[in-house]
Amino acid sequence: MSRWFERVVGAAAVRPGRVLAVAGVLTVLAAGLALGLTPSTATDALVSKGSASSAATERYRQRFGDHSIIVLVRGDLPNLVLTSNLARLLGLEGCLSGNKPAKQVAPGGPNSPCAAFARTKPVRVVYGPGTFINSAVGEINDQFSQQLQVKAAEAQRAAAAARGLARKQGRSQAEQDRLAKSASDLVYAQFTRSLLELNLRYGLNLRGLPRLDDPDFVSALVFDPARGASTPKARFAYLFPNAHSAVIQVRLRPDLSEAQRAKAIGLVRKAVEMKEFKLTGAASYTVTGAPVVVQDLAGVLTQSLVRLLVLALIVMALVLALVFRSRLRLLPLVIALAAVALTFGAMALFGATLTMASIAVLPVLLGLGVDYAIQYQARVEEGEADASTHAAAMRAARLSVPTIATAGLATAVGFLVLLLSPVPMVRGFGLLLVFGVALAFMLALSAGTAALVAAGRAGAADGRLARSTRGAGELFDELAAAVGRLARPLRRLAGRVWAAMLREALGRPRRVLLIAVAVAVLGLAADTQTEVNSNLLRLVPQDLRGVRDLDTLQRSTGVAGEIDVLVEGKDLTDPKVVAWMRSYQSGLLKRYGYTPSNGCGRAQLCPALSLPDLFRSPQASADRARIRALLGAVPPYFSQAVITADRRTANLSFGIKLMPLDRQQQVIDVMRARLKPPKGATAELAGLQVLGAEANAALSSPLRRLGTLLAALLAVALVLLAVYRRWERAWIPLVPIALATGWSALVLFALRVPLNPMSATLGALVIAISTEFSVLLTARYREERAGGLEPADALRRTYGSTGAAVIASGATAIAGFAVLALSDVRMLSDFGRVTVVDLAVSLLGVLAVLPAVLMLAERRTPRRAAPAARPVAEPAVPA
């Protein structure tokens, strides 16, 4: 491989201008493509498409529409439904549905949200109080009219038959008229009895045909007098959660793109602000629901991360200027930025979208890109003392780049272990990092070499440029010296600590290693007790509009989300299936504290729009004929929400409170354990709440995190063994890598830094960064030993050269992540803090323990006579 590296470096050194031009053009084009990336809110980023929950959720979306956007209507319920406000609610629901009377202008005019809904038709169906009451009016009137027509015809036939019979019997005309009227009255008496049955079905007391503006009819339909004059009936809880709120559900078409979905959500928000639908009295609208929150969250997190990255770049540039002693101090950061741009440009080129995990790739890739560039640049500039930049680069390609490549390969393989994750966005995180690491390494060899050679030629040919570069370097040197003077006490303390640790490593390496192992084991044990913060409301900005509105929804209705049970079978009108659904629903509601009298305020689960709501009594679902007759009598707008037209898929829904995802997963586990439908039917949980809880469980499981760490260690060990071909060379850098995972876990536990669904995957990062440090330092130590230095001198030279470069790259990456810890987004700030701890502990742990491991290896392996020792370079303390 060294020959291949020499060819790449040689080509870049021969034509540096051309290489820099090509790299610059590609970077600019990639950055332009990357700017077009949009955050994705797709549910398939949470759980694999092949999982049962994800497949059920997708089938649910296709059959019943996308997850509901909720328009919460707050106000006293009598004021909402017994006044002119009801007509405004009906108008709003019609607007959201995209309904517009023929040859009439949509409410608000041709440029209004209503007109946009009518043109684009993004909404599949709307369920709300206005549509419900209006449909009830229409349904009752239709049934009344149909039965009246039928009974009128029957009355005429009965009267004619009675008259004919009386005529045959020789009765008088008056007697014939009397008997005919009696027969007609008997038919109408039967009609009256049917009307009473209709009243009982709807819980009404009809004295005439119902109207939307009839408060008596609406009151009889909506309210339950037994529970209070303004208390809604329990079976309508999905529309009227309590006496102070109503709910409109808007389900979008499932085939909308991310941009179309975002536009539709914006139109809903604009529609509720239209003057045509402004409610009178103390009443208002709030737009919320899972799609709204996710949309708001994606946008805010992306904007926040962009701002923080700009600040991180400034801080990283300052740190590089201070700690990296080079004439091109900022070149590693430029190369890392180019690698980031190319990585995300490739994402855009292949049609990918941004998820939270892919956004998190940015700071990680920046840190790794800076690391590779610094290591390579340091070795090139180290060789410039004896040769030209071109020759120094070729020598580095032959002697040092294979070691850097080995470290990079081991790092990449460590990230590939993330492909074992059950969460698609985590697998994408791993793939992006591997791709980005490869790009960063290649850019360091090509563009990095070209920049170094071009700077060397320009400096030699133009004295003014050399003086200007030297002047800028002297300015940075003066600034670094000033900082050094301020930190001189800390440096002296660090020097004494380092000298003591080196003495212990040289004299008692076994003791040092045993202490390190004990601390690591303690850390791995503590990791199982580290808090995993899965409460999404605590992880996002508290002033986020979607979060505030979701909290308002829960405070007003008692619920903030929905869990769906998708029931499928050849014929769901089977009485056994309906009876099981009723039993399943009532059993869960009872377990989690819901009763009609208490409502949803104190319950963890509440009833939502479901098929069992149609069957209030066992008699209504006693046989298949009654079930089909009742489904046929229900307004289509309602029945399509709970059962498909072919009667093969039904929906059983529950409202659920906002709660930590681990607690939500416990509820889901109980619900899934009770899914035992009768023969001929299947049932599966679906919905965003299910996917989110399952993804969190997969990410935050201590056993899964431990398994990921072990798999990453094994993968790194196999790579090192394949490269070095000797186990005694592979295990030395592996020991600090393995120990660093436990050290970082212990520090996180001691600092009480919680993990979250985003930062719980960073165990692989510890292994990756530790691998980089450990492999580079081990290789440099072997190089110094091969040059004839004794162990103590070889360690000092290693830590004074490669160690200094490692500290420079590590400090730069830590500074970048430290900026994330300042974010007002809790998820990002925790991610930044966890990463800072991981990087700092990995860096310090490897620097501290690797000498002891090397000394033990020295004792195990007899060495051949070495050539004469070279002078030892100072400083002995890494700087």
Question: What does it look like?
Answer:
This protein is mainly α. It is 66% helix and 6% strand. The strands form two sheets. Strands 2-3-1-4 form a four-stranded antiparallel sheet, sandwiched between helices. A four-stranded antiparallel sheet has the order 6-7-5-8, sandwiched between helices. It is elongated, with a radius of gyration of 37 Å.
TL;DR?
With 879 residues, the chain is mainly alpha-helical.
Keywords:
879 residues, mainly alpha, 4-stranded antiparallel beta sheet, 33 helices, 66% helix, elongated, disordered C terminus
Helix content: 55-70%
- What would you report as the Rg, rounded to the nearest angstrom? 37 Å
Output the number of helix runs. 33
Class from helix and strand fractions: mainly alpha
Topology, pairings included?
Elements: H1 2-14, H2 16-34, H3 52-64, E1 69-74, H4 77-81, H5 85-97, H6 113-120, E2 123-127, H7 129-168, H8 173-202, H9 215-222, E3 245-252, H10 258-271, E4 284-288, H11 290-323, H12 331-349, H13 356-383, H14 389-399, H15 401-416, H16 424-445, H17 447-461, H18 463-486, H19 488-507, H20 509-527, H21 536-539, H22 545-557, E5 561-569, H23 575-591, E6 605-607, H24 624-633, H25 636-639, E7 649-656, H26 661-673, E8 681-686, H27 688-700, H28 702-724, H29 727-751, H30 763-786, H31 791-800, H32 802-820, H33 826-860
Antiparallel strand pairs: 1-3, 1-4, 2-3, 5-7, 5-8, 6-7
Helix pairs in contact: 1-14, 1-17, 2-12, 2-17, 5-7, 6-10, 7-8, 11-13, 11-22, 11-32, 12-13, 12-16, 13-14, 13-16, 13-32, 15-16, 15-28, 15-30, 16-17, 17-18, 19-20, 19-33, 20-29, 20-33, 26-27, 28-29, 28-30, 29-30, 29-33, 30-31, 30-33, 32-33
